[in-house]
Amino acid sequence: MASRYPLPAQPSNGARGSVPAPLLSSAQRWNGVCVELYRVRDIEVVRHDPGHVVTLFLRGSVNLYQHRSGRSWHKTMHAGDIIVAPAGAPRILRHKEETEAVKVLLALSFVDTILETIAPERVGEIELLDYFGTRDSHIEELVRRLFAELRADALGSRLCAESLATELAVHLIRNYSTAGRAAASPFTMFPRYKLQRVTDYIQDNLKEELTLERMSQTLSMSPYHFAHAFKQAVGLAPHRYVVKCRIDRAKSLLRDTDLSVTEIAHQVGFANQSHFSVAFHKLTGQTPRRYRGEA
Q1: Cα 233 to Cα 223: distance, rounded to the nearest angstrom
Q2: Is residue 62 very low, low, confident or very high in pLDDT (cuts 50, 70, 90)?
Q3: How far apart are CA 250 and CA 289, in angstroms?
Q4: Can you give the pLDDT at residue 10?
């Protein structure tokens, strides 16, 4: 199936221990932020990036392993999943499947400059934290807009990109740093690790019946407190978030596989094709078949 993004010919992958050159890159074009598009397969590499890295997976799924600072993560990444990797210790990354991802590198000095502006008394105290395979609609929107500016390379792209990077840096400081963790209220908000635990559970069980009780049990919370805290943290009620995740997964399957619409409906947890089509049209304004034809 055709790619949603018109891309130049894919370069051959390097040997193990290396990553091929990006298909697109803003290197030498923008200050403080570098946006790169990669399509890679069969990677086993040690990465030591000079700045903080945010990676957004665009297409398909990939079974990814990461080891960093004595900790290991292992998860199947899907389109829309995000990795936040602070500057510092190197990362070991391994996967075999082909994946397409946009990587946003924020120079360490750039984030520190933002921090000096919004909280000068806390420079040196606040550190970004590792998040592996999280979901964040605001980060996804900002990265996609940065990618759009990279592809357009139009008048004002540099100014627009730097503004978007500033917004992304502030969001990271507020939500993915030691400052954000300290500020969170334990009653009204999840710590990020708890939010990731339950969103991981949802992503891994989209085919199953995801009830409020089952989701709340993953965090040993009452359904009432879970529903309240989840909406505070995500901005959507749990059941609406589940439907969104199912439709996002369905979009990926419609773009990247030849499975029938009925098979996709079952894979993402809908009882039948009719219910799936109604939900899909409600969120996207298109039928599944029309979406597949235009992808």
Answers
A1: 15
A2: confident
A3: 11
A4: 35
